[in-house]
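Meet my pick.
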Amino acid sequence: MIIDITYVNSSIQEQGFTMLRSRLPSTTPDRPHSFTFTGILIAIVIVSTGCGGMNGTYIEPSKGPRGLCSLIVDNNFSSDIVIKLYEVRDPTQALHYMYVSGKSTAVVEGIAPGNLMMRYSMGREWDKTKKMFLHDRANFETDQVFKFEQSETEVSTSDGIRKEKHWSVQQLKLNANGVEGNVTTSQIDDDEFQDRK
């Protein structure tokens, strides 16, 4: 989906979610509901995000170009997972690599426009040196491609021309107990997850 977050894109990066939510005005003359919807979206992310441990920690610094898009990851498994995002044209180098705790939500930010595929590994006892779970490990790749888009438009107002930025906010839902999430997956081996083939 495309979320219109007019005016507040720089505030998200510089001030953080909490301060941004407290300062958002409820309406604007030209777009009476744009801020309200954005505030609700950010509030939902804050409330649902797990706390403590490594949830939302980047295993490695993000690579490649940076953008305004983001991916909300809902991990409804009891096991922790690590996720990797790749450009479809180059599935050998992870652009984003994040840890998501079990029963938690995390947000991958700064995603540039493009078509991205995702792999994830789940298990117990994460080894920071080997960058792998030591027990009950299983690796998967989503069958779907995540499309991220970003654009800028000019809007005429009574005060002149205003530039508005629009970008994609995608969501990945992984459900436990055989309940289908919003993607299908195929199992892969350790070498493929570790970008060794």
